Amino acid sequence: MLFELCVVILGLILIYILLELVEPTPQTGIIKGSVTYGEASVDGVLITLTKSGEIVLSATTDAEGMFEFDEVAIGSYYVRAHKDVPEGYLGAEMYVEVLGGDEVGLTLPLVKG
C-alpha cells in the first residue's frame, strides 16, 4: 500500500514538472510590412486589417512606409493599403494567415490598374 502511494505521488510530481516545462501555444501573432510604389516606400498610407468583412485594426505607414499590427488573434485576414494614388494606380490587398506566435511579413505594392 505504501509503495503504491509513493508511485502515485511521484507520478503527480512528474506530471507537474512536465506541465511547468511546456509553454502554452501563443494565441496571437504579428503582421508587419511596408507599402511601396515602384522602388519607393510610401508614407501616410492607411492600412486596414479585415476579417470576415469587418475592419478589426487599422494603422498608417510611417516615414519609411512601414506598418505593424501586434497581438493579432489567430485567423485569416485581408491586409489592405488605401491611398490616393496617381490616376491609373490602385491600392493593394493581400490575404494572410496568422498562427500563434507567428510574425507575418509582407510588402503591399501600389500597382497600375
Integer count of domains: 1
Please count the beta strands (DSSP E, at least 2 residues each): 9
Shape: rod-shaped
CATH class: Mainly Beta
Pick out the low-confidence regions.
none
CATH architecture: Sandwich
Output the number of helix runs: 1
Query: Do you know the CATH topology?
Result: Immunoglobulin-like
- Which H/E pattern describes the elements? HEEEEEEEEE
Q: Report the helical percentage.
A: 10-25%
Based on helices, strands and strand pairing, what is the structural class?
Answer: alpha+beta
Largest sheet: 5 strands, mixed
Provide the gyration radius in Å.
23 Å
Strand percentage: over 45%
**Mean of pLDDT:** 85
How far the N terminus sits from the C terminus, by CA atoms, comes to 80 Å
CATH superfamily: Immunoglobulins
Descriptive terms for the model:
five-stranded mixed β-sheet, alpha+beta, 113 residues, four-stranded antiparallel β-sheet, Immunoglobulin-like
Describe what this molecule looks like in 3D.
With 113 residues, the chain is α+β, with helices and mostly antiparallel strands. The protein has one domain: Immunoglobulins (Immunoglobulin-like), CATH 2.60.40. The protein is 18% helix and 53% strand. The protein contains one helix and nine strands, in the order αβββββββββ. It has one helix at residues 2-21, and strands spanning 28-37, 40-41, 46-51, 54-60, 66-73, 75-82, 89-90, 92-98, 103-112. The strands form two sheets. Strands 1, 2, 5, 7 and 9 form a five-stranded mixed sheet that branches. It has a four-stranded antiparallel sheet with strand order 4-3-6-8, with no helix packed on it. The radius of gyration is 23 Å and the shape is rod-shaped. The mean pLDDT is 85.
